[in-house]
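Appendix B. Extra example for self-study. Work through it before the problem class; the solution is given directly after the inputs so you can check yourself.
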Amino acid sequence: MEAFEWQQAASPENAASLATHTTTEAMLSAQGTRAAFTQAMLIKAGGVDLIGLMKDGLVSPVRLIDINHLPELQGISENAGGGFTIGALTTLAQIATHAGLMKHYPAFVQAVTTAASPQIRNRATLAGNLLQRPRCWYLRSAAHHCLRKGGEHCFAYAGDNRYHAILANHDGCAIVHPSTPATALLALQAQIESVSANGVQRVISIDDFFVLPSIDLHHENVLRTGELITAINLPAPHHTHRSAYLQLGEKTAFDWPLAAVAVFFAIDDKGICQQTRIVLGGAAPTPWRAREAERIIEGSKIDQNNARSAAEAAIAVATPLSGNAYKLPLLCTLINRTIMKAATSE
Amino acid sequence: MDNNTPKRDELLSVGMAHLGLKKVTREIPDDEPPALPPNAGLNFIGRSSPRWDAVDKVTGAACYTVDVQLPGMLFAAVMRSPLPHARIRSLDLVAARNFPGVRAAVTLIEALSDGSAPAVLYVGQPIAAIAAETLDAAEAAIQLIGIEFDPLPFAVDLDSAMKPDASVVYQKNEVAHIPFIGFPFVGELPLEGNVRGPNKMVQGNINDGFSSADFIVEETFSTQVQTHCCMEPHAIVADWHEDRLDVWMSTQFTAGVRAQLAATFRLPLSRVRVRAQAIGGGFGSKSQLGQYGKTAVMLSRMAKAPVRLVYRRDEEQMDSGNRPSSRQHLRIGASRDGKLTAISLHAWGSAGVAQGAGVGNIAMALYVCPNLESLQYDVFTNTSPSTAMRGPGNTQGAFALEQSIDALAEKLSFDPVALRDVIDLSPVRREERRLGALKMGWAQRKSPGFDSGPVKRGLGMAQSLWPTNIQLNAACEVRLWRDGKVEVLSSVQDIGTGVGTLLKQVVAEELGLRPEAIEIRIGDTEFPSGPPSYGSRTSASITPPARSAAWQIKNALLQSVASHWRLDPQQLTIQDSWIQSADNPSQRMSWQEAASTLRTDRISVVTGRSDDYAGFRSSHGDAAIALNDLGGVQFVSVAVDTQTGVIHVERVVAVHDCGRPINPLQIESQIHGGILMGISYALLEERIIDPHTGWMLNPNFIDYKFAGPSGLPQIDVMVLENYQGFSATDAYGVAEPANIATAAAIANAVYNAIGIRINTLPMTPARILQALHGADRRTC
Amino acid sequence: MSDKTHETGTDQIIKPSAEIFGPGTISMVLNVNGILQSIEMEPRTTLAEALRTSLKLTGTKVACNHGACSACTVWLDDLPVAACGILAIEVVSRKITTIEGLGDADHLHPVQKSFIEHDAIQCGFCTPGMVMSCAALLARNPHLGVEEVETAISGHLCRCGTYPHVVQAMLSLSAEQEADHG
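Solution. Structure tokens for the complete assembly:
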């Protein structure tokens, strides 16, 4: 790891004004494999991903702006109108043990509980988890100057793509989004609050937060330099809401899953599904809404048959690469099971 | 050989203790102790004494090589090839050498004898190394090394390396320089393209054998490259002095490293000292001095200061050894009654740029068959050199053989256990199968694919075979001090096997003391040369001389006491730290008092490993192969989710033998380790190389996946007491047998569950789904 | 252990401020095992490096250096964390407990005793971290089942395969406590 300066931000706005790049931008370089922006000043929260990237020589900032101590970014609070606000720096461990969140947003807490390891969950922040760089091994290899890092070539298409995307994967880059909590947050219609250097706050619907390669090959989300996440909002719970999350990996701990599914339903008194969000993880460059599946469930009573039809509809549109067709039956099963898990939950 | 030693006849117990023992008469050397009774008659051997270094390990006090900090110590970093095959046009270390804090720089790659530019043969190959005052400075200086390459074509996988037009890793005149990884040693073999071999073994007439077969099974099996993943990386601290060399190294063989250092740097053995106090795992990858070892010494010599070289995890994964890949075409013929008529094995494997990718002798040696043919080839690829890894060869070999026997049993309508009762002559394994089958509930095994699903369960079993290696260059010293203190000294190292505990138990048993009273000093070549910790040979090699030395020390002490009491030493016994006269029990003396009668402050006996009492199968240099084999039988139950392809190993019953078990709990630990590494090999692990750049894509513990603690199977370990009467302790190792059968047993259980045979490792969800549903299935 | 044997440098504890530290060596005070200790470090120095190198507390092991194996587990304010991924400068003034602070040869922690008794140790390189995770688990939940233990150690990798004996060691402690409390 290259040497760097260290500074603690006085406030979120202060941090936003000090930072010269996002980590993503600081990893971009037009040529060569060494990080281009050695003059970058980067914001560091839990640092779980950033320190790893720095150790691997993928980013070498001149200064880190630490925000981990800022009290205004911590904690979980219940809002007056229902719903919860989760400070950006709330750790995954704090979320995993929060009774209110467990009760109202099981999909989210299940996703958080299965992320990484206990040690990492004690340090990793929710915002940091959403902003972590993809696990693509070409992206994370200093020897492969790939498209997403500013190079001219995606190595995954002709290389080993067993862990890559099966959806929205033909626009130059086939990463899968690495955050599993993000799948649940997308299902649950969370909002992301941010603040900029000039103090301007904005609220971004999670529907608009993640960015596909077809829009921008170099970013996974809409956040840009000078802006940082302050909180994540979860909408008010309702007795009709159901949610569930399942993931499947090769290992049962500290392994980014091969596939993950988060679902959210609002099921009325007659058992009819009035709101449906089915989100796939490990499948696409962003957490991915399986709208074909949602259409089958929406307005129906969930049963074994339409759950399976929905799962198959989601998979019908997939475009697997040379090495990842196995994800089709895997995701199909997982969608089916997650729908049934949510539908039969209380 | 020690044929000239005076000998006497001794009655020794042989057989499996729970079935009853027989006595046999064997000639044993006069300076060795009388027969050691079976464990039931002993106080400390056969009981689970706490691990000798457990307190240090649980408190963090244990000192590993990575913990050694010497005054003025420099830190080394290695510059490695970024290309899988290239000529080095120029190499310039000047800027690196002039970087602040840099104290030494060496190149690690030499120009060829014909003067042509040197070539790098794989990504990660060391090219140069720097020692500097800080690791950061060394790593920064590495970036300043100027190098120009002319890239050459390359092949990183078996298929492309075997193509007729493949680029060649080695020319014919370079064969002598090919690094060699061991097992089995083979000299002159032809090299065609990248394919070297065959290493051939033939017995009987293979064609006749197949003609006379009623049934034939024939399959091709593939196994992946596995990396060792020692938790402590490869590490060395080298301290070159004008008159001697001091080395601390995370090694499986301190004495072997000393010999290699002495030869490499032209030093007398007496001037090289190698220490390894605690070692964070080895599994075969830390058996040799290796290039990293030489590098640190070269840097220390140049800088005139101690140099520490510790691999980063990515270096460790890329270039510290691995288990070779294999492709095995196995054909087995049998007659209706189950008897084997022919076994033909054609195997190709790649140990990268090294030779030694064989699949062992298990297909030729486990079962009785009159007609055998084994042709094994090394295929060179532009990947890092393999090293031995836990059960080298036979682990890959068992995956093919034991699945084929399972398939044959089905074809013959035999139960897999019953078929082995026909073709396996070992009475020990027959008993192990019986015990294991009972414990597992084998009788309830259903026909293949019986469960309706989606989760299908199955049972499988497989067997291990491992030759019993003995290190003849293996010695141990026992010292008794006048204050009563007893020390056991040897350069033997404890890589996590617990050999120090065995020494405590054996010496305590012989001396009539408690194990806590024995001080263990090992892992230092200033002490008598101990055996390596590989090949499952350590216990068998070092515990007999330890007992012999203790026995001689005991005799000397009794002699001293006898002189003091003016009695015949034959009349004296030691029990519970008291020396007493057989005739007059009231005449007794504590151990301390007895020691105080010694004429000198300290007495000492050094003994070496003698030949096995019944001789050896073969003997070559420092090592011999004993008459007995090590085996073991493992039964596995799995649950296969046919919708997700996930295999869960629910239970393992492991029945093993290692002669006289000295410490049952430590044996159980080691068997757990072999099984878990086997499960991991079967289901998870794979070194993945990018086909276009030759880089390892998973050089870390995130993407290289090995088994963690979640979802552990229930593991039932049963260890037989199986006496041979071959040595003073009759103890043997178990590290390799515990690993060899596991993947094959899982594969057989998977077959029993889903009715489809998985011939390729690892058995990932992707592979299972592909096998069950074919590619591109879009339903669930 | 006494809490303040090293008073000098307490005024150097970094407080939130606009001050810029580094990139070169700076003086910091770490609170490790109840002792405040002043060390010279760079901002890039990880907690694991600071413990192992400056404070010579080598019981904390670094195996993967990327948070994936948990060999470097220490407690930060009583929570197990991976010390390889935390900068020392981040945890100035925070309470850090390492394996050396848990118990020593004369005063073994119950988890350490149980590890010895069940041979939950082989090469020992992952052991200090594993002990720290298990001791943290025991402190917050003395009544353990297999699942709690497997979850608590789920981040650990052990190549020797000590996991089954670690689980047994912990379950036996749980059973002991159950017996003690009727």
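Self-check: The first helix of chain A runs from residue 12 to 18. If your reasoning did not lead you there, revisit section 3.
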